[in-house]
Write a structure and sequence with these properties.
The complex is a heterodimer of chains A (197) and B (325). Chain A is mainly α and 197 residues long. Chain A has 2 domains: 90 residues; 64 residues, Orthogonal Bundle (Arc Repressor Mutant, subunit A), CATH 1.10.10.10. In chain A, α2 packs across α4. The longest helix of chain A has 21 residues. In chain A, 33% of the residues are buried. Chain B has 3 domains: 54 residues, no CATH class; 172 residues, Sandwich (Jelly Rolls); 71 residues, 3-Layer(bab) Sandwich (Phage tail protein beta-alpha-beta fold). In chain B, the strands form 3 sheets. In chain B, strands 1, 2, 3, 4, 5, 6, 7, 8, 9, 10, 11 and 12 form a 12-stranded mixed sheet that branches. In chain B, strands 14-17-16 form a 3-stranded mixed sheet. In chain B, strands 13-15 form a two-stranded antiparallel ribbon. In chain B, a hairpin with a 5-residue loop joins β3 and β4. In chain B, α1 crosses α3 and α2 crosses α3. Classes of the chains: A mainly alpha (197), B alpha+beta (325). At the A-B interface, α1, α2, α4, α7 and α8 of A face α1, α3, β10, β12 and β13 of B.
């Protein structure tokens, strides 16, 4: 009896290990890394003299974080992201020799100094709706109109173009612009709001 | 300022151009005809540079959030052709609960409650495919109760408990309506999944589209890939990948797919399918996450995974298995 049980456990172990191959780096990235964006932007803006490059730096950080996450998803996402951001800044400074390395504050101190928004976005649906509406209101008027028609009224691209009395190509451009701007607004919302110089 | 000129061909840096490109892909796929060629082109773009991938994830995740705006959509008067027929459906009645008790010992037994009403019940661990007289098919998952009612001008199903996957023969003149937890889903040519839990109803559309109307007159049109969580006074809509949706209906093949799922949720899911219940005794380990594909009756496999991964203690008490630190 004991032997039989042992065997069934071993089988279960093998199957369990096989099953455990799934690690979803993209899901982790969206769920845990992206919510840190406002904080990350705050950090980069404070650390980097050329504000026009900050957006690019952020994307470089994301690429490195994603690549590192593909090797292994860290147990602590926030220190992991800020370590990578710090290292990236140091690399860039070495390469470009624009500011002394000492000028880059130790991210540990900074990390403690800023209270991070919780990555756990369990917002009540209604609050979320209010935020989304506020985000919509920040869009340029035509982009806003296109997004509202598409998202709230559920129209297709062609129908949006008809309703707005514009060509499909123009409708397409407004949608693209709206979606692009929404990413900046929604990811930046938890921190300093005055993004885009 | 975002873009005061409304000129989106921004000249700025690389990262920005990629971000605009990502937005372009998203809107093309969402709002315009999307061919297999487009998909191939998109896949190539996505995999050609890690910057493209992370940028896409970033823009897409913001866009997904705005799906919930659909909850603000025009309500009943504006897009409710069926409303003219004065549909009135019973609020979920307690009669349903009684039927569960009656039918529990029989797999997919049906009882003619009224001449036109048929009740289907599945016991724990069993799922059944039911072909309706119009050719539509319903796969009723474990521990579920469904009633069907066919009138002259509409087909109606009441999902009183549990979960069901629908493949509907679309007929605009004779809409197919599913009522679950006070919500109403009308198919617009569709494969969709509905799951009812204590406090909410989840609707996932795998193909086609469906119209969702909540008890408080909110409505939204769901398209393929949309998943709506409907609770009292709120509808939250997210968009899921084909893979996620396939995972959500893996039970049709007797499998459960987890990805970074807290142990507590894994246990809750398995307990739907098994008489022997998994109990997580410690709220800390309840948050530990595991991923993997397990058979719906794979309690032993999951227990083994918990033991191997987290070194947890397992106690088999016969009718339940307790996992603790």
């Amino acid at each position: 009896m004991a032997d039989k049980r042992q065997t069934s456990h071993e089988n279960a172990d093998t199957r369990a290990l096989e099953a455990l191959g799934v690690t979803d780096v993209n899901a982790w990235f969206v769920r845990e890394v992206l919510p840190l964006e406002a904080l990350l932007m705050h950090y980069l803006r404070r650390q980097w003299p050329n504000q026009g490059e900050v957006e690019d730096l952020r994307q470089d950080v994301y690429v490195r974080v994603h690549e590192a996450g593909r090797r292994q998803i860290p147990s602590q996402t926030k220190p992991f992201v800020f370590r990578i951001a710090h290292d990236l800044l140091v690399d860039r400074i070495r390469r470009e020799q624009i500011v002394p390395i000492e000028a880059i504050a130790d991210f540990d101190e900074l990390d403690i100094a800023i209270e991070a928004p919780s990555p756990d976005r369990t917002v009540i649906a209604r609050d979320e709706l209010r935020r989304l509406q506020a985000a919509l209101d920040k869009l340029p008027p035509r982009a806003r109109e296109a997004v509202v028609l598409g998202r709230i009224e559920g129209l297709s691209g062609r129908e949006i173009a008809q309703r707005m009395g514009i060509s499909p190509a123009t409708a397409s451009a407004h949608l693209t612009g709206g979606i692009h701007a929404l990413a900046d607004i929604l990811h930046g919302e938890n921190g300093t709001q005055d993004h885009k110089l | 300022m975002i873009e005061s000129s409304e000129n989106y061909q921004s000249s700025g840096a690389d990262g920005r151009a990629v971000s605009v490109a990502a937005a372009e892909w998203i809107q093309r796929r969402h709002f315009w005809d999307w061919s297999e060629n487009d998909q191939a082109e998109f896949d190539a773009w996505l995999s050609s540079d890690p910057l493209n991938l992370v940028t896409y994830l970033r823009v897409e995740s913001a866009w997904k959030r705005t799906e919930r705006l659909a909850a603000l959509g025009p309500t009943a008067p504006a897009l409710s052709p069926t409303a003219e027929r004065k549909p009135h459906w019973p609020a979920l009645s307690r009669i349903a609960i009684a039927l569960i008790v009656v039918g529990v010992s029989v797999s997919a037994a049906w009882y003619a409650v009224q001449p036109k009403e048929i009740t289907y019940v599945t016991p724990i661990g069993v799922h059944e495919t039911i072909t309706l007289t119009d050719g539509s098919q319903v796969e009723l998952n474990t521990d579920s109760v469904m009633r069907t009612r066919a009138d002259a001008d509409r087909r109606m199903i009441m999902l009183d408990k549990g979960e069901a996957f629908f493949r509907i023969k679309h007929d605009a003149a004779n809409p197919f309506i599913v009522l679950a937890g006070g919500q109403r889903v009308t198919d617009l040519g569709t494969k969709f999944l509905i799951r009812e839990t204590d406090d909410k109803v989840e609707v996932a559309v795998l193909e086609g589209s469906a119209k969702l109307e909540s008890a408080d007159a909110h409505s939204a049109v769901l398209k393929a890939g949309d998943v709506a969580m409907v609770a009292t006074h709120s509808i939250a809509i997210t968009r899921k990948s084909g893979q996620d949706l396939a995972n959500a209906v893996a039970w049709r093949q007797g499998m459960l797919v987890f990805s970074q799922t807290p142990l507590a949720d894994v246990a809750g899911e398995l307990n739907r399918y098994n008489a022997k219940k998994l109990i997580i005794a410690d709220s800390n380990i309840a948050k530990d996450k595991i991923g993997g594909t397990f058979p719906t009756n794979g309690v032993n496999e999951v227990v083994a995974a918990a033991r191997l991964l987290f070194g947890l203690r397992i106690e088999d008490r016969g009718s339940e298995i307790v996992i603790s630190r």
